[in-house]
Amino acid sequence: MKELETVKYDDTRQRKAAMLRTYGWSYHDIACELGYPDELAVAVAVRESLQLHEMHSVAEGIAQEDVRLHTLLRAWTPAALSGDKDAANVVLKVHTALVKLHGLAQPTKVALSRQADEAFAEDIDSLLRDLSVPTYIEPTADADEDWAELPE
Fold it and tell me: Which of 3, 70, 151, 152 is buried most, with the most CB atoms less than 10 Å from its CB?
C-alpha cells in the first residue's frame, strides 16, 4: 500500500497552481512543475487557493462598502440631528444599508416540526373554541334540501 505523502502548506505554491490551472494547464503538468505528489494534491491546492482568494475579495468588498457608508453617515448626521428631514432620511437609509451589509437584518429562524393530522386537527379545534368560532354550523331552515342531505 502506497503511503500518503504529507504536503506542507505553501500559499505561494497554491497560488501558482491556481494561476497555472486558469491558464489551462492539466493537474498532472502542474504537479510535475511545482513538485506536488499527485494530481489530487494539485486539485485540492487549487480549490483552497481559489476559496481563500474569494473570501479575501468578499471581505475586502465589505470593508470598502463599510468605509463608504460610514463616511456618508458622518457627513449627514450633523444636519439630521439639527432637524433637517432630508438629511435624517439619508441617515436612516445609510444605517439600514449598514445593517444589511453586516447581516444584522436576518430573519428570525423558526423551528418547524411535523405534527400528526389528528393532533393538528385537535389543536386547531381547541384554538377555534378559545376564539369562540363555531367549528360546525347547523344548516338553517331555508337552506337548500339537497345540501342538507348528505349521502351515507
Answer: 70
- The residue among 129 and 112 whose pLDDT is bigger is 129
Q: What is the tens place of the pLDDT at every residue in 39-64? A: 999 999 998 888 888 777 778 888 88
- State how far the Cα of 69 lies from the Cα of 98, in Å rounded to an integer: 7
For the chain, report the end-to-end CA distance as a whole number of angstroms.
75
Cα gap 15→52, rounded to integer Å: 10
Residues 107-119, mean pLDDT to the nearest whole number: 73
Q: By the 8 A CB rule, do 41 and 17 touch?
A: no
Angle at 41 between CA 40 and CA 44, to 5 degrees: 85
Residues 91/73, Cβ–Cβ less than 8 Å: yes
Q: Which residues contact 79 (CB under 8 A, 6 or more apart)?
A: 87
Sign for the pseudo-dihedral over CA of 110, 111, 116, 120: negative
pTM tops 0.85: no
Q: Where are the domains of the chain?
A: 11-105
Looking at the chain, the whole-number percentage of residues with pLDDT higher than 70 is 78
C-alpha cell of 67? Answer: 468605509
